[in-house]
């Protein structure tokens, strides 16, 4: 699917000559949230507009390093090695938290339950039929079809892939030893189909009988694709609702630099494949006008903007996290 470019005119059909254009690129995970936020913020400040390229987290990190955008967006934290190549200090600002839904296409759309070992087995190519004994054992009383499983995965550098593979690495030794976690991984040979963007994965799953794929919950809901309940560390089967993502986020150990993982958390109601998405910005802004407008938007997004999160299938950031982020944002210079 071709690259989606978002250009929101902030609250007006015609903007004044002094309106600032803020350019961003990266995550498809938080694209639905950013779309609504840009629209809502435009009603508060008609002197700014946003141009956002939903190209995947890897692209967002690359464009920020190349200084071709004002901000990047990524669902995978940048590595120390990557940040060492940057011309200035990069800040990680959590903007949303969400669940990675395991979408599937089965006749009659039954409600399927899965666990981490079974999901790893599917993407390793060890479980190839929907009526496999391991899937059947998780779904007593459910008649599963003798249908080939078609795993779908992302083709480009993807933060959603990072969250997905981070989870599988944490729960399955075979996966950890062979594939591991990253924004781009070497998928087992001959396994499944590739798609670009979360919207591409959702499109493939919706079209192909027997398909399974992963993407932020908003994409599953918008495309009306069923998704599995996943077995968490407490042994409960949980859906990727905002409430279960909030339960996962509440257990996260968040360091001062805000780079953290929240997969497979403790907690009876926590969804196991959850993550955050960061806005990546330089602490020293090259363009003072852009920097001032970007800082104002970020302060709004992590406070008032969070009131929109649940309606968009995301979990709002806790107030203590918001407070910590505001202090970090105050260190941005322009």
Describe the protein's topology.
Layout: E1 4-8, E2 20-26, H1 31-42, E3 48-54, H2 57-65, E4 71-74, H3 80-84, E5 90-104, E6 113-114, H4 116-124, H5 133-138, E7 150-154, H6 159-171, H7 173-178, E8 193-195, H8 197-207, E9 211-216, H9 217-222, E10 229-231, E11 237-238, H10 242-249, E12 274-282, H11 288-301, H12 319-329
Parallel strand pairs: 2-3, 2-4, 6-10, 7-8, 7-9
Antiparallel strand pairs: 1-3, 4-12, 5-9, 5-12, 10-11
Q: Would you kindly provide a written description of the structure presented here, covering whatever features stand out?
A:
- The chain is elongated.
- Helix content is 33%, strand content 20%.
- The chain has two domains: 4-98 and 275-329, D-Maltodextrin-Binding Protein, domain 2 (3-Layer(aba) Sandwich); 100-240, Periplasmic binding protein-like II (D-Maltodextrin-Binding Protein, domain 2, 3-Layer(aba) Sandwich).
- Strands 1-3-2-4-12-5-9-7-8 form a nine-stranded mixed beta sheet, sandwiched between helices. It has a three-stranded mixed beta sheet with strand order 6-10-11.
- It starts with a strand and ends in a 5-residue tail after the last helix.
- The chain is built from twelve helices and twelve strands.
């Amino acid at each position: 699917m071709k690259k989606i470019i978002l250009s929101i005119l902030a609250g007006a059909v015609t903007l004044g000559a002094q309106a600032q254009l803020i350019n961003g690129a990266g995550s498809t995970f938080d694209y639905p949230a950013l779309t609504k936020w840009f629209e809502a913020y435009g009603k508060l400040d008609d002197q700014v507009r946003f141009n956002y390229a939903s190209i995947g987290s890897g692209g967002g990190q690359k464009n920020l390093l190349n200084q071709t955008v004002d901000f990047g967006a990524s669902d995978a934290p940048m590595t120390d090695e990557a940040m060492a190549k940057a011309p200035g200090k990069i800040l990680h600002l959590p903007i949303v938290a969400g669940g990675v839904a395991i979408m599937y296409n089965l006749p009659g759309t039954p409600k399927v339950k899965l666990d981490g070992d079974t999901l790893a087995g599917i993407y390793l190519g060890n479980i190839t039929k929907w009526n496999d004994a391991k899937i059947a054992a998780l779904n007593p009383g459910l008649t599963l079809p003798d249908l080939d499983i078609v795993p779908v995965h992302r083709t480009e550098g993807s933060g959603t892939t990072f969250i997905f593979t981070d989870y599988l690495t944490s729960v399955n030794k075979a996966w950890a030893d062979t594939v591991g976690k990253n924004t781009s991984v070497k998928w087992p040979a001959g396994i499944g189909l590739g798609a670009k963007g979360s919207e591409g994965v959702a499109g493939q799953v919706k079209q192909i009988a027997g398909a399974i794929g992963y993407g932020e919950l908003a994409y599953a809901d918008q495309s009306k694709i069923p998704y599995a309940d996943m077995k968490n560390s407490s042994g409960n089967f949980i859906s990727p609702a905002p409430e279960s993502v909030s339960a996962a986020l509440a257990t996260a150990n968040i360091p001062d630099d805000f780079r953290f993982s929240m997969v497979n958390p403790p907690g009876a109601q926590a969804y196991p494949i959850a993550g955050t998405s960061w806005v990546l910005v330089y602490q020293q802004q090259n363009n003072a006008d852009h920097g001032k407008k970007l800082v104002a938007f970020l302060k709004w997004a992590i406070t008032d903007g969070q009131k929109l999160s649940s309606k968009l299938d995301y979990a709002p950031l806790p107030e203590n996290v918001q407070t910590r982020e505001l202090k970090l944002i105050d260190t941005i210079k322009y």
